[in-house]
Design brief:
By secondary structure, the chain is α+β, with helices and mostly antiparallel strands. About 20% of the residues lie in helices and about 35% in strands. The chain has three domains: about 210 residues, 3-Layer(aba) Sandwich (Rossmann fold), CATH 3.40.50; about 90 residues, Beta Barrel (Elongation Factor Tu (Ef-tu), domain 3), CATH 2.40.30; about 110 residues, Translation factors (Elongation Factor Tu (Ef-tu), domain 3, Beta Barrel), CATH 2.40.30.10. It has eight helices and 21 strands. The radius of gyration is 24 Å and the shape is globular.
Length: about 425
């Protein structure tokens, strides 16, 4: 491990404007999600020749008349055989302006839990709508989940416009229907793009088929959407992952609290507090890869070298004395249930929140959400697979959290079945029920 050097030059603006956009595609079955991603990869020249050749061979074997670009993302044999997406597929590509990580999410209702997994880290959601069918139940379901998971940007791709003769009237009706539904959601940045993913219209380049559309192509929008301000830089939080203690004579006195900055900014000289002890000290240096930097921002992984040798260990939280997270054993949360075994109040589970682990019990199911009608079913007694509901949870020890609205990292947790060690639920903290 290299000795920490004096603070290296660190351009905070460049870091916060990191040219990395995480996005997911979602929508109903056969809306063209995988085809759209394949088209993005193909037209932006972001695939290798052997990948294209493999897709060509697979398309020929399937009897397709042209190269099926969806095969660039549908990698599972079952997906190719059925022509559907089953699991979340991640694809990476880059343009001169930005890097992208795309999560191709399944459209079937039974794979809603997979969609939640892909949405948990996304900056932007692509909601695909088949122009022939308009806004349907699964469109509403995925838009609601994207809003619930606080994805700040949403692009509604009205796909297969070529099959409705590029009708502006059809496009405007779909836009009005979606906006009417989205008015009840918390997503504020919504854009609409008419396109044909199969033919490439308005995907990478503007199409001549839509003279009535004066907006950008999809790729142009993705390259220019502003995401730097989406990060919470107000509330400093760093869950401690590990205590760095190099076992060597040269660095025997080095001790750093390592972790991923969840939110806020940490700088040398800042006064900080460690929870649960409540002890305070100051930051001596912020180190990245053995080099001291001027500041730590989300989502940097850093080691905070503290002036005083206070008691800090894995699962603790470093914050500012005047800006502390909630410390509680009683949580109120929205839960997406991911198990075929229903969630019933009174059952005990394990819970993992940031780097902290504990046991918990689901005390109460307040209501189950009817996503289609956006109404609460307060008579519900359990949550089945892929259902979403509001619950009260009691944890065996205090955890240090924020509401999910404030910070996605410290405001979320997973529920684990202790008998099987399987993740059975994902929770979004809405507050405490002390």
């Amino acid at each position: 491990m290299a000795s920490p050097s004096p603070a290296a030059s660190f351009d905070s603006e460049s870091y916060l404007d990191m040219d990395l956009l995480r996005l997911l595609t979602c929508g109903s079955v056969d809306d063209g999600k995988s085809t759209l991603i394949g088209r993005l990869l193909y037209d932006s020249k972001s695939i290798f020749e052997d990948q294209l050749e493999a897709a060509q061979v697979a398309s020929l074997n399937r009897g397709d008349e042209r190269v099926n670009l969806a095969l660039l993302t549908d990698g599972l044999r079952a997906e190719r055989e059925q022509g559907i997406t089953i699991d979340v597929a991640y694809r990476y590509f880059a343009t001169p302006r930005r890097k992208f990580i795309i999560a191709d999410c399944p459209g079937h209702v039974q794979y809603t839990r997979n969609m939640v997994t892909g949405a948990s880290t996304a900056n932007l959601a692509l909601i695909l709508i088949d122009a022939r069918h308009g806004v349907i139940e699964q469109t509403r379901r995925h838009a609601f989940i994207a809003s619930l998971l606080r994805i700040p940007h949403m692009v509604v791709c009205v796909n297969k416009m070529d099959l409705v003769d590029w009708s502006e009237e059809v496009y405007e009706k779909i836009r009005d229907d979606f906006e009417g539904f989205a008015a009840r959601l918390e997503t504020t940045d919504i854009s609409f793009i008419p396109m044909s993913a199969l033919n490439g219209d308005n995907v990478v380049d503007r199409s001549q088929s839509t003279p009535w559309y004066d907006g950008p192509s999809l790729l142009h929008h993705l390259e220019n959407v502003h995401i730097a301000s989406d990060r919470d830089l107000i509330d400093p939080r760093m869950p401690v992952q590990w205590i760095v203690r190099p076992q060597s004579d040269e660095f025997h006195d080095y001790r750093g609290c390592a972790g991923k900055v969840a939110s806020g900014v940490f700088r040398p000289g800042d006064e900080v507090m460690a929870l649960p002890s409540g002890l305070t000290t100051t930051i001596e240096s912020v180190d990245v890869g053995g080099e001291a930097v001027e500041a730590g921002f989300p989502p940097m992984s850093v080691a905070l070298r503290l002036k005083d040798d206070i008691d800090v260990s894995r699962g603790d939280m470093i914050c500012k004395p005047g800006n502390k997270p909630m410390v509680t054993q009683d949580l109120s949360a929205m839960v997406v249930w991911m198990s075929t075994t229903p969630m019933t109040p009174g059952k005990k589970y394990a819970i993992k929140h940031t780097t902290n682990s504990a046991r918990c019990v689901i005390k109460e199911l307040t209501y189950r959400m009817d996503i289609q009608a956006l109404q609460r079913d307060e008579s519900a007694t359990e949550l089945a697979l892929n259902e979403i509901g509001r619950v009260n949870v009691r944890v065996t020890k205090p955890i240090f959290c924020d509401t999910y609205r404030t910070c996605r990292q410290t405001g979320s947790f997973i529920i684990i079945d202790e008998a099987t060690n399987v993740t059975v639920g994902a929770g979004l903290i809405t507050g405490t029920n002390d």
